[in-house]
């Protein structure tokens, strides 16, 4: 179940990279802001879903390094 959840969150991260004109990206941009073409994390004001997505972007779930960023280059 953990691997399935990780893959779904990774899919959301991927959508945020490729669909910057999409509805969800625009909603998240309005809510959290954007710096340098990347959505901001939002800190404690972010929803638990958004905080989990930010952890995935930073490499959470794989143990070492920035696996998501390295895998999407």
Brief rundown of the structure:
This protein has four helices and two strands, in the order ααββαα. With 73 residues, it is mainly alpha-helical.
Walkthrough of the structure:
There is one protein chain. The protein has 73 residues and is mostly helical. It has one domain. Helix content is 58%, strand content 5%. It is built from four helices and two strands; from the N terminus they run ααββαα. It has helices spanning 2-18, 23-32, 48-57, 67-71, and strands at 34-35, 38-39. A two-stranded antiparallel sheet has the order 1-2. α1 packs across α3. The longest helix is centred in the N-terminal third of the chain and has 17 residues, at 2-18.
How would you describe this structure in keywords?
mainly alpha, 4 helices, about 60% helix, about 5% strand
Largest sheet data: 2 strands, antiparallel
- Which structural class do you get from the secondary structure elements? mainly alpha
Q: How many beta-strand runs?
A: 2
The oligomerization state is single chain
- Report the portion of residues in β strands: 5-15%
Q: What's the shape? A: globular
Mean pLDDT figure: 79
- Order of strands, main sheet, comes to 1-2
Q: What share of the residues lie within helices? A: 55-70%
Count of separate DSSP helical elements:
4
The ordered string of helix (H) and strand (E) elements is HHEEHH
Task: Name the poorly predicted regions.
Answer: none
Can you tell me the number of structural domains? 1
- Report, as a whole number of angstroms, the end-to-end distance: 27 Å
Rg for CA atoms: 12 Å
